[in-house]
Amino acid sequence: MLVEKNVPLEACNTFHIVAKALSLVRVRSQADVQAVLASPEWAAAPKFVLGGGSNIVLTGDVKPLVLKVEIQGRQRVQETAKAHIVEAGAGEDWHEFVAWTLAQGYPGLENMALIPGTVGASPVQNVGAYGVELQDRFESLDAIDLHTGQVFTLNAAQCAFGYRDSVFKHGAGAPAPVGGHQTVGLKDRALILRVRFALPKVWKPVLGYADLDKKMAEHQCSSPTAQQIFDWVCEIRRAKLPNPQLIGNAGSFFKNPTVSPEQCADIIAREPRVVHYHLADGSVKLAAGWLIDACGWKGKSVGNAGVYDKQALVLVNRGGATGGEVMTLAKAIQTSVYERFGILLEPEPVVV
Ligand code: EPU
Residues 170-181: what's their mean pLDDT? Predict the structure, then answer.
């Protein structure tokens, strides 16, 4: 087991914030995690699990032992009457995995093309885009308990998926996520080793999202293939969202807030153009990007942290931004949206 010291993390977080891991172990297998847990020096030490670093804001050097997950491998492991069950190691790049499933003839993940990060991080925040969430295609995952070393398997209900939420974002004893089941919270406790997806044998495109409808009209195509949807989602994302390799960012910085129909009616009375979607349970989801945009934040900066000029929901590193600058900007945005609309935006990334 090799423990690296003072490892620069700039290339390991998509915000490209400069910080160090005081101690870091690259984990390439279940046995590597077990070796850490068997080590007298590190067994009881606080640990931080790092995947692709696409959903974190580093506000300083990371003192807990960083377990950088680099577990590879992807294969079809099973076939059921309805689905191909495909498994990937937690360290696989998410987008490359999505492209691979399509190339193998297992469509179903195409709406989630080009989401930055690793397969292992995808269940943590139940990633989603263009009408499909990870939970819609999830079969099960294997994880290791960092306290006991026990390997366990969770199904979708046990993961307690919610909107950008799961059991992995909640500490022990924390209340269940909205709409989720009560499970012991696994934040800072579990390291995801492998994830399995159920990809339907009878595939149907998931359409109905405004940006995808536009692509269908443009291409005069009413029944696209999975590959076409994959290509369109890549085009849409490249046009709207900054490429983290060029401009540091962590995707949407805030969740889209959900309000009651009464609250929404009140906002519409004042702001008739507010972008909103009615949900099946009667509540209403508001577009946080629109709210931030309406407060005039697009293109604005605090120090070297800024609001992306094509999507106000995305905060960017304009070069050399610190985590402190990103969080100061985030707080200023929260304050102005709260003062104008009475809504407190909830950040999506984990602040480390
Ligand atoms: N809008 C504005 N101004 C802005 C940004 C957005 O008016 O600056 C309006 C848009 O015109 C649109 C609406 O707000 O009418 C929603 O915008 P968009 O379609 O870009 O989607 P979003 O709600 O901002 C969510 C996800 C994205 C995901 C897209 C597509 C969240 C927090 N974000 O964004 O996920 O790619 O939908 O499904 O749910 C991520 O989580 O990192 C992420 C990028």
Answer: 63
Render pLDDT for 245-299 as a digit per residue (tens, 0 to 9): 999 999 999 999 999 999 999 999 999 999 999 999 999 999 999 999 999 999 9
Mean pLDDT to the nearest integer, 5-29: 98
User: Looking at ligand 1, which atom is closest to the CA of residue 241?
Assistant: 44
Report the distance separating Cα 256 and Cα 148, nearest Å: 36
- Closest approach atom of ligand 1 to CA 163: 39
The predicted model scores a pTM of 0.94
Please give the C-alpha separations between residue 169 and each of 62, 143, 271, 315, in angstroms, as whole numbers.
Answer: 18, 14, 33, 21
Pick the CATH number of 248-351 from 3.40.1260.20, 3.40.190.10, 3.90.78.10, 3.20.20.100: 3.90.78.10
Nearest to 17 by CA among 70, 71, 64, 53: 53
Right CATH number for 74-200 from 3.40.50.920, 3.50.50.60, 3.30.465.10, 2.60.120.260?
A: 3.30.465.10
- The residue whose CA has the least distance to atom 27 of ligand 1 is 129
From the list 54, 122, 164, 196, the catalytic residue is: 164
Reported as a pLDDT band with limits 50, 70 and 90, residue 1 is: confident
Where do we find the tokens 């935006």?
345
User: Is domain 4-69 given the CATH code 3.30.43.10 in the classification?
Assistant: yes
User: Residues enclosing ligand 1, CB less than 6 A?
Assistant: 129-130, 211, 240-241, 251-252, 255-256, 275, 287, 289-290, 293, 298, 311-313, 348
CA 123 to CA 113: how far, in whole Å?
15
Same topology between domain 4-69 and domain 248-351: no
